[in-house]
Design goal:
By secondary structure, this protein is an alpha/beta fold. Helix content is about 35%, strand content about 20%.
């Protein structure tokens, strides 16, 4: 149980599309083996109607504790886990690039014999050995927000498809700069799975004809640290004086970049968008530093991860494509390829709606 009181996100973003309510059991048996010769548990039988186990211990391991985004996300996870009759535990590091810290905490949770771990991975490869050991010991592993390799977990709770998130950010910036000029990206850690997927999709989308007059000139990494992200934003403008816009697909990065731009001569001239939390970005929307940005409801993301973790531990799903589980009043969710569970479409925040949200 967390010692700090749970904070509740008081809003809902755009409604997640409800999936058809199916009760038929999914999951034919398949005794195929993974690379090390052990039976692939993802192909075991599962039933969405299996009783929900209670008294479980579900641990959340975010990329970084004590940040607004993950505080809200993990509060959502806590709410789901406790409503399902189990115990929630949050562990983590205060450094946004401490992969070794994530590994050590996974190992500790395995030793503690927790029932499930929900982790937002800082690195797609570095956590794999620790996560595979946890799975071999019977721990159900879910990733949320940022994935690891599919073979190192049972399911991934994704905010939306990587392509949709990337395309929306680029389109917003294109609209703001008239689809013309040099742009840059201010990312988090170099190894962050979600960041790299979005950057790859942005680069691919830039090949579309409507972006023919836009050019990506640089990608900087602030490691989700406020001071470093601030310095990296400053460095981008110093190195690229003709820069027209920045995409920062990370809540800590966009906040730091907005702070820098709001105090610089480039305020209003260099456009900034990306993924941000409304409460962080409200001052910069109000003072004209930022026109619009996007995000999903992190509380709902954490809540869905909590439901997925308990569903795995209860045998309602095993991580196989096509299986379904009920996530409380959020409705039924279906696992896609590689065990991906998608929350829904992101929401665009601007001066017209930002005051409707509080997280």
């Amino acid at each position: 149980m967390r010692t700090s009181p749970s904070r509740r996100a008081s809003v809902l973003l755009a409604a997640v599309s409800s999936l058809s309510l199916l009760t038929a059991a999914c999951g034919d048996t398949d005794d195929s083996a993974d690379d090390d010769g052990t039976t692939n548990a993802k192909n075991a039988e599962a039933s969405p109607n299996a009783p929900t186990k209670t008294g479980l211990t579900v641990s959340f391991l975010p990329k970084q504790v004590n940040t607004p985004y993950f505080t809200v996300a993990d509060d959502g996870g806590e709410r789901a886990v406790e409503e399902l009759g189990s115990t929630f535990k949050e562990v983590g590091t205060e450094q946004g690039s401490d992969t070794a810290g994530q590994v050590s905490r996974i190992n500790a949770l395995t030793e503690e014999k927790v029932d499930a771990i929900a982790v937002s991975a800082l690195d797609p490869d570095a956590l794999c050995d620790a996560l595979k050991r946890a799975m071999a010991e019977g721990v159900k592993v879910v990733t949320y927000d940022s994935d690891t390799n599919p073979g190192c977990r049972y399911a991934f709770v994704s905010p939306a498809s990587s392509e949709d998130i990337a395309v929306r950010q680029l389109a917003l910036l294109g609209e703001q700069i008239g689809y013309k000029g040099d742009i840059a990206i201010l990312s988090a850690a170099r190894t962050a799975t979600n960041q790299n997927a979005w950057i790859k999709s942005i680069k691919r989308e830039l090949e579309d004809a409507r972006y023919q007059d836009m050019r990506l000139v640089d990608v900087a990494y602030g490691d989700d640290e406020a001071k470093k992200s601030y310095r990296e934003a400053e460095g981008l403008l110093e190195e690229h004086p003709d820069l027209k816009g920045i995409i920062s697909p990370t809540t800590n990065g966009i906040k730091a970049a907005a702070k820098y731009l709001s105090q610089s001569q480039s305020k209003g001239d260099v456009k900034l968008t990306g993924l941000g939390a409304p409460n962080d970005m409200r001052p910069y929307i109000e003072d004209g530093t930022v026109d619009a940005f996007v995000l999903w409801d992190p509380a709902k993301l954490g809540e869905l991860a909590g439901h997925a973790a308990v569903a795995l531990a209860s045998g309602q799903i095993t991580g196989r494509e096509g299986q379904m589980f009920l996530a409380g009043d959020m409705g039924w969710f279906k696992l896609g390829g590689d065990g991906v569970i998608t929350l829904g479409d992101p929401t665009v925040f601007d001066a017209g709606n930002i005051d409707d949200y509080d997280f």
